[in-house]
Amino acid sequence: MKTHYNKEIIIGFVTLISLVLLIFGLNYLKGTNIFQPTNHYYVRMPNVSELQESCPVYVEGFKVGIVRDISYDFSSTGNIIVQISLDKKMKVETGSHLEIKVGLTSGAYLNLILNKYVSSYYQIGDTIDGVSEKGIMDKISDDLLPQIETIMPRLDTILQGIQFLVSHPALSKSLEQIETTTANLEESTRQLNVLLSKDIPPIMANLNQVSSDFTAVSSQLKQMDLNATFKYVDETLRNFEQLSVQLNSKDNSLGLLLNDRSIYDRLDSTFVNAADLLLDLRLNPKRYVHFSIFGRK
User: Fold this and answer.
1) Local confidence band at 219 (pLDDT 50, 70, 90 cut-offs)
2) pLDDT for 297
3) Span 201-220, mean pLDDT?
4) Which long-range contacts link 90-96 to residues 24+ away (Cβ below 8 Å)?
């Protein structure tokens, strides 16, 4: 009998532990920490279409609680009561309110907007006012649809303009010109490829040859005795300088001939007299030459 009772006690104990773990697991999945003390408040909302139980409650982006329960207030229309659990340390100033926010990925949540200008607080179990934010589809209906209705009358005109542009002969002509241009570009590309494959290699070879010749000439210039060459050039220029000095001086024949005006004048007079003599000799030869066949006394 004692063994039978021990088995029942063990089974009961295991069942109790299983229930505790089940409750703890369900609350954990809901985001509720059963070991953390919380304060309960009620929120009156006009619409909770996307809000669900276990949705988080945030204050300035920080999670401070969750939604515990959502119920409809049948005593008055348009009121939905949302029960929330906030951290025990969280104090809510009077005049604060909650609003429903809808994220693209996170879903709906409650955002607590605190009234920081008062020093009084809500008591545990008080009812806080709430507002619901427009959902994505509501925003589309309210914001985009009026704009679409405004655009619709102009859409027909836009389509007619597009049809006019598409059917205009200039567009066909432009397309033909583009096709011709593309063909010309293709031909130019082909010729350029031929040039690169046939003409450029010989040119590059010639350039390499010229570069090699220039390198050889440069090496030959390096091997030349440039000092001796410049010395020879310097001596030649010095000789030219001495010759120029002598030509400008009157202590030599060439210098006198180039620099003495009287010698030039005498030579000029001599050449003139010689020319006159030759002219007179040609005109009057008998004055200077006598011929006699039989002799003359």
Assistant:
1) confident
2) 47
3) 77
4) 90/39, 90/59, 90/64, 90/65, 91/121, 92/41, 92/121, 92/122, 92/128, 93/118, 93/119, 93/120, 93/121, 93/122, 94/118, 94/120, 94/121, 94/122, 96/122, 96/128
Which among 54, 34, 50 has a CA at the least distance from the CA of 100? 50
- Average pLDDT value for residue range 241-255: 70
pLDDT tens digits along 19-48 = 777 766 665 555 555 555 578 999 988 888
111 DSSP β-pair partners: 58, 99
**Cα 209 to Cα 204: distance, rounded to the nearest angstrom:** 9
Decide yes or no: CATH 2.40.128 for domain 35-133. Answer: no
Task: Give Cβ neighbours of residue 30 (< 8 Å, ≥ 6 apart).
Answer: 53, 54, 66
Q: Measured on CA atoms in the order 43, 48, 53, 55, is the torsion positive or negative?
A: negative
Q: Kindly provide the residue ranges of all beta strands, DSSP E only, lying in the chain, ordered along the sequence.
A: 38-45, 56-59, 62-72, 80-87, 97-103, 107-113, 127-132
Q: Phi/psi of residue 94, each to 5°?
A: -65, 140
Over residues 89-99, the pLDDT tens digits come to 889 999 999 99
Q: What is the pLDDT of residues 90-144, one digit of tens each?
A: 899 999 999 988 876 767 889 999 998 899 999 999 999 888 765 545 555 666 6
Residues 6 or more apart from 264 whose CB is under 8 A from it? 257
